[in-house]
Each structure stands twice: as C-alpha cells, then as structure tokens.
Amino acid sequence: MFASSGFDAETVLAGVNALVDDETAVVGCTAGGAFTEEQSMDTGVAVTLVTSDSFRFDTALAVGLSENTRGAVRDAVRALPEDIEEPYQSAIVLHDGLSGVGEQLSLSVQRRLGPYVEFAGGAASDGLRMESAPVFCDESVAEDAVVLVLVSGEKRPIITVNHGHSPISEPWEVTDVSGNVVHELNGEPAFDVWKDAVRDHAMETSGIAVDDVPVGSADLRRLMVTYLFGIDQGETFKIRWPRTAIEETGALQFAVDIPEGTVLRIMHGNRADQIASAEQAAADAVSLCDGNIAGAFVYDCACRQLLFDDAFSAAVDGIISTLSAPVAGFETYGELCMQAGQLSGFHNTTTVLFALPE
C-alpha cells in the first residue's frame, strides 16, 4: 500500500486492515505520488493484493534506522522465520526516505540476507516537503524505520533497473565531505564546480542562465534533477542526486552519504531518455521472464516528477503496456536494487522493477 503523505497514515492503514483477514500481511509507506495500471495520482492510495501458491511472503519491521542501520536490519532479519523450505529467496525493502542511510541500508541488508538474495525497493517520500516519511507494517506506522518482505519460492522474482542518464563532464574527486554534504570537488567548492560544468549545456539546450537561478528555488531543483552526478560502475553509472546547494559555503547536499575519494561525473537525461529508460526496465523484465509476468512493483524517483511534469504518467503507461500485467508503485526518495555480485544498491532518479512470474 502506497498512500499520499497528506493523508493520516494510521487512518489509511486501519482502513486497509479492516478489509483483509488477520492472516494477510499489510506493508507499505507514504508517497508523494503513487500509481497502478489504472492511473497515476499525486493524491490517493494505491493498494495491490498479492496471493500465490508458488511464493511465500514474510514481513518484518524495525526502527532506529538512522542511529543504527546495521542494528535495525539485524532486528528485522531476526524477526523473519527460519523454517523456509523454498529454494529461492528475494526481498522487498521499504524505508523512511528522510533517514539518509540508503547505501548503508542496502549493504546491511545484503550482509544479513547473504550475497545471493537479491532485493529491490524504495525510500518513502512526502512530496518533497522533507517532513515525515514513515513505513507501514501490519498495524504499525513507524518513522526512521525499515520494512523487509522476504519473498521465497520455486522461482526467482525478476529485478531490473535503468536510469537513462549519460555523462557530459570530466571526472572529479570528492576531496572534502561531511556525510551527505560535499564541500569540495578537486579542491574547489562543489556548487561552483557543478555550475561551471552545466553552464554551457544548460544555455545551449534550454536557454537557462545557471548563474541567474536562485539557490533554493524550484528552478534550481529542476536543474539539479536534470544535471545529477554519476558514479562510474564500469558498464553503467550509479546516479547520485544533489538535493540542494548551500549558498554560504558552496557545498552540495546529497540524498545519501558520499565517501571521500568518490569520483563523480555530471550526468544529463532529457525527458525522452527518461521515459525510454522506464520502458526499458520493463522490457528487460519481460525478456528475463521464462513465461508471463503476473504483476510488478515499480519504484521510481520523486525528483523525476520535477523533470517529467505531465510526462510522468507517460513513463508509467510505457511500463504498463510493456509488462501487460498489474502494476503498483510510488515516487521514492531513492531506489534500492541489489543484484547478485553487486557491491552497491542505492540509486537516485532511476526506475527499479520487482516482477513476479506466473
């Protein structure tokens, strides 16, 4: 269940629980926007019911995520049953998007579940208000928390990811950072480096004078969604969103911690590329499925709404038409996708699919 952050979460959760029996687990989170195969909505509740003879679903909730990420994940995993006979396990992970620990969370989940348990999910959001983004599990609404859904079965769910951005700059090294606040790139103020890198491109493609855009404005937020950073992963880039600039110091505040020494490039993705990347994530799921897809959960970044405007629904429509299956998803504050052999699982401005085969 994905519910608009403007609603009272406990009331919505109680309403859903009143419609299902005691054996049905209910999980979800707040969302700035949600969607199903029926419609996309800025305000509303998206509910999907999953029942299966071939998959087993076990849920757990743990709090204290930002203070002790490893401990919260440990508590959640310990709450899951141990008597699982199905040969394959995957997981869905939902967490408070204001905790700022997406990468630590992905690594902690991998460490606890093991390197062969792939997982996907998203960070709860609140329409870019940055005030409250709780998660739900059964009758509980909890902030600074994580929900795990262990999916066990005779088949593996299909997890795909795509972002549609390309590098447009030289690489820079993070030389001064405090958590998620990057002060300097190559010894220069990070915000100045970003402006220097995007200035000509923004003017040529959009007619925007970057130096005239006020810090804290909606126009700057849109530019920072259009021109994000990417970490080179070899064949692809992992996207990192500079959520805001700190004018007094010239620093950039990201949605997640950035380690010192990280090498970043400016990435650019236009509306058409973003829509195409969402459709490609769905197409990849179809090609990987041995048979038909029964349904899918979709996790897509809330900041893409700033980039898409009304075209966001077009991206969702592309996913739905490609899958030809029921879909439920929401606009996140970051996406989780950890596949076998990977060492990093937190994403920004990316489409992640968790599809169940028939």
From TrEMBL:
Domain FIST C-domain: 190-339
Lineage: Archaea, Methanobacteriati, Methanobacteriota, Stenosarchaea group, Halobacteria
Domain FIST: 1-189
A Pfam entry, by short name: FIST_C
Name the UniProt record assigns to this protein: Histidine kinase
